[in-house]
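Quick check before the chapter quiz. The format below is the same one you will see on the exam, so make sure you can read both the input and the output lines.
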Amino acid sequence: MRLDKYLKVTRLIKRRTVANEACDAGKITVNDKVARASYDVKPGDVIQINMGQKPLKVKVLNVSEYATKETAADNYVVIE
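Here is the expected output.
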């Protein structure tokens, strides 16, 4: 699944266009490398979002096409 879609489905970022713009601005890193919106997310990847006051670092546990509000957080675990 594309990185921008993953961020939207898991509700880490509210809209896919915002996720896409964040990737283009270099604010999203995957495994300590700046990632493009088209990056293919896999379980085990570590995503860092550098938006807002403090960065958010999560580890991908699961990649699913759809997630409800209740199950969205089951796809990742917050590291920092």
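If your answer matched, good. The domain at 3-78 is CATH 3.10.290.10 (Structural Genomics Hypothetical 15.5 Kd Protein In mrcA-pckA Intergenic Region; Chain A).
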